[in-house]
Design goal:
With 160 residues, this protein is mainly alpha-helical. Among the domains are: 1-32, no CATH class; 35-102, no CATH class. It contains eight helices and no strands.
């Protein structure tokens, strides 16, 4: 709360507004997001970074804290001391769909595979629409079927 007041005071001073100007108007003029939203965004990014690593001690600590908070007063006490626990609880469902590793992905594959760029297939772009409608339709349906097959190969789409 004190940090938020300090930020608001400095914004008011830097932009030259009077005390009668509401702080939400000043924040909109400066295109600043509220401090709590920025802290929430940084905390959620931190939580996702923790989720991406296997056997993270911070993740184990969050799991332990969640198990320890068995009653409502105890949970409120823990949430007051560890505000990041709220973001862990709201985002823990993403653990099931995230790909996790103990090694960064950059070290799993060779350098050549990480810089590989697939060549552009210009077979469909080189055929004018007006030349032959049958050829154009056949090539476009074949291309659509090929992309549909590639998308159907992995039904469990994972993020991360």
């Amino acid at each position: 709360m004190q940090l938020e007041r300090l930020v608001n005071k400095n914004l008011r001073l830097a932009l030259g507004y009077r005390l009668s100007t509401p702080i939400n108007v000043i924040m909109a003029e400066a295109k600043e997001t509220p401090l709590q939203l920025r802290f929430g965004y940084m905390t959620s990014k931190f939580i996702y970074r923790i989720f991406s690593k296997k056997n993270s001690p911070v993740l184990h600590s969050f799991e332990y804290l969640e198990q320890v908070t068995y009653s409502a007063p105890r949970r409120q006490q823990v949430l007051a001391t560890v505000p990041a626990l709220k973001y862990y609880v709201t985002q823990k469902h993403t653990l099931k769909i995230m790909q996790r590793s103990s090694v960064p992905y950059a070290y799993k594959y060779s350098y050549e595979s990480s810089i590989y760029i697939q060549q552009f297939d210009s077979s469909l772009t080189s055929i004018p629409k007006k030349s032959n409608a049958r050829i154009y339709i056949a090539l476009s349906t074949r291309r659509a079927a090929h992309s549909f097959i590639l998308m159907a190969l992995n039904p469990k789409m994972k993020i991360g």
